[in-house]
Specification:
mainly alpha
């Protein structure tokens, strides 16, 4: 097995993760838009001030989530290792691990761990750098998705949880 074949597979996997991260963010954007539209219409049909406030809170949380998810789709030209990376292992086949390496570290890890051989060192160095950059992009997209989905859940679950509590568990004394 050669470094070139491993690096090409790493790059392909990282690129697939970029596409998957973009798809997740796009679906979250569509959900947030639909949810905001539905809640807006619902909010103005209620005359109860408390329900109106909770619906406005849910709309605000989904709007924040929408902005975060949309920012994950913006192209970035400068890529750096993530400040708070996704879980990292010592296996160089995981994109989150590759995102935190330099090309020298990645090539050394492949040589030591998989006993792979170098065919064209300059090409492999360039390919390693490309795999690292693509892995960094994928890591950022997943990190932004995780943040955005947390805001969506914060907006959606809080009012629904309160409503369920009020309907089924709240007893006036």
């Amino acid at each position: 097995m050669t470094n070139t074949s491993i690096l090409e597979k790493l790059y392909d996997h990282a690129f697939d993760m970029v596409k998957f991260g973009e798809t997740k963010n796009t679906v979250l954007i569509a959900f947030n838009l639909a949810f905001i539209a539905g809640l807006t219409r619902l909010a103005f049909s209620f005359f109860n001030w408390y329900i109106f406030l909770y619906l406005m809170f849910a709309i605000a949380m989904c709007a924040i989530s929408l902005f975060i998810a949309a920012s994950a789709l913006v192209a970035r030209t400068k890529n750096t290792p993530p400040e708070q990376p996704l879980p990292v292992s010592d296996k160089p086949l995981f994109f989150a691990t590759v995102a935190n390496m330099t090309q020298e570290q990645l090539l050394d890890k492949l040589n030591n761990q998989y006993h792979s051989s170098a065919e064209n060192p300059q090409y492999e160095s360039d390919l390693a750098r490309q795999a690292i950059i693509t892995s960094q992009i994928a890591s950022k997209k997943f990190k932004l998705f995780n943040t955005a989905i947390a805001f969506t859940f914060g907006g959606v679950a809080t009012p629904v949880g309160l409503l369920i509590y009020r309907l089924f568990f709240y007893t006036k004394k």
